[in-house]
Amino acid sequence: MTQWKNFTKGFLRENPVFILLLGMCPTLGVTTSAINGLGMGLATTFVLVMANLVISLVKDIIPNKVRIPCFIVIIAAFVTIVDLVMAAYFQALHEQLGIFIPLIVVNCIVLARAEAFASKNTVLTSIIDGVGMGLGFSFALTILGGLREILGSGAIFGHKFIAGDGILIFVLAPGAFIALAYLIAIVNKINKSSI
Amino acid sequence: MEYFTIVISAIFVNNIVLAQFLGICPFLGVSSKVETAIGMSAAVVFVMTLATIVTYLIQNYILIPLNIGFMQTVTYILVIASLVQMVEIILKKVSPALYQALGVFLPLITTNCAILGVAILVIQKNFNLLQSVVFAVANAVGFALALIIFSGIREHLDLVDVPEGMKGVPVALLTAGLLSLAFMGFAGLVK
């Protein structure tokens, strides 16, 4: 597999949200607007890349039996860094995302890439995989957030372009499930027709 | 009265799965049969209560006195992971019957973000120990309620003629959306 393919697989073919269905909690929880989705996606991307980098570096030192706890500690360390940096520099966003920032640590996508990819591949390939998967995740979250924002409040990235209230349900909890259901159906359709 | 409010709020109004989006992975993953849903729910009730008590004590008697609050995420996840492992070993020895029932679900619980989520929420809300326990139990019951109702619906979904593109995950998510809509009817029940 070429590096380019390795990079682009996260967008549609192996998109973490639409195809692999990993990391559903933040996907549904924070995507009330496009900017929240993007912020969460980028935070997760950072953790993914750094965790992949470190794990692929130390994979030969870690005994096989205790590898999962080791991975979790490495991931948790980077999540703490993201949490503190965001609290210091992006306070508004940090408050919006709230509990979902520390919860990146139990986001299955990070551990899944560590276990399935970084523990078996070289440093460079693992970093590229982390960037690709992270951007694919951000892409999915931004689309879902954008869709919910447009339908729910008639705005995109905070710029209102439809006067009045939107379809309120889409910014509330049920809207997350419904919007994601249709998005997955559409992505399935696209993937099927491209094969 | 205060505890009553916590319970009603956690189970119905701010249901952990349908309103707060914690624990979605097991919610979608083990909900295809009612039996497995009940097993998972029982395991969650057990571990969530235990984990909340332990992390609460660690937060207040170790992390805060030592002034290392920033270690919260790392400590909690390690505590929860080892707690789950310990519960598994103890159950195997003490109650093989219970172990048989919960066994397969226990390892899955480590990555259930509802457990870590509730442990962190309790600290954020400044609850005391008793309130924390009540909150944890109520949230676990809320999780169980949502999971069992959802799995009941999904069993029937198998028999229904669903459009080709919506089969599988999309229709399950749509069902969850409608369920969440139904739970929104409880909004305003408590302040």
Characterization of this structure:
The complex is a heterodimer of chains A (195) and B (191). Chain A has 195 residues and is mainly α. In chain A, 67% of the residues lie in helices and 2% in strands. Chain A contains 8 helices and 2 strands, in the order H-H-H-H-H-H-H-E-E-H. In chain A, strands 1-2 form a two-stranded antiparallel sheet. The two termini of chain A are 18 Å apart. Chain B is built from 9 helices and no strands. Chain B is an all-alpha fold and 191 residues long. Chain B has helices at 2-13, 24-29, 34-63, 72-94, 96-102, 106-109, 113-124, 129-157, 169-183. The longest helix of chain B has 30 residues, at 34-63. Chain A binds chain B through residues 21, 24-26, 28-29, 69, 72-73, 76-77, 79-80, 83-84, 99, 102-103, 105-108, 111, 169, 172-178, 180-182, 184-185, 188-189, and chain B through 18-25, 28, 70-74, 77-78, 81, 110-113, 116-117, 120-121, 124, 165-166, 169-174, 176-178, 180-181, 184.
Helix content of chain A: 55-70%
Kindly estimate the percentage of residues of chain A that lie in beta strands according to DSSP. under 5%
Structural class of chain B: mainly alpha
In percent, how much strand structure appears in the residues of chain B?
under 5%
Question: If you compute it from the alpha carbons, what radius of gyration of chain A comes out, rounded to the nearest whole angstrom?
Answer: 17 Å
How far do the termini of chain B sit from each other? 13 Å
Total E-strand runs of chain A:
2
Tag the structure with descriptive keywords.
heterodimer, A: 195 residues, mainly alpha, two-stranded antiparallel sheet, 2 strands, B: 191 residues
List the topology elements.
The complex is a heterodimer of chains A (195) and B (191).
Chain A: H1 3-8, H2 24-29, H3 34-58, H4 67-89, H5 91-97, H6 108-118, H7 123-153, E1 155-156, E2 159-160, H8 173-194
Helix pairs in contact in A: 3-4, 3-6, 3-7, 4-5, 4-6
Chain B: H1 2-13, H2 24-29, H3 34-63, H4 72-94, H5 96-102, H6 106-109, H7 113-124, H8 129-157, H9 169-183
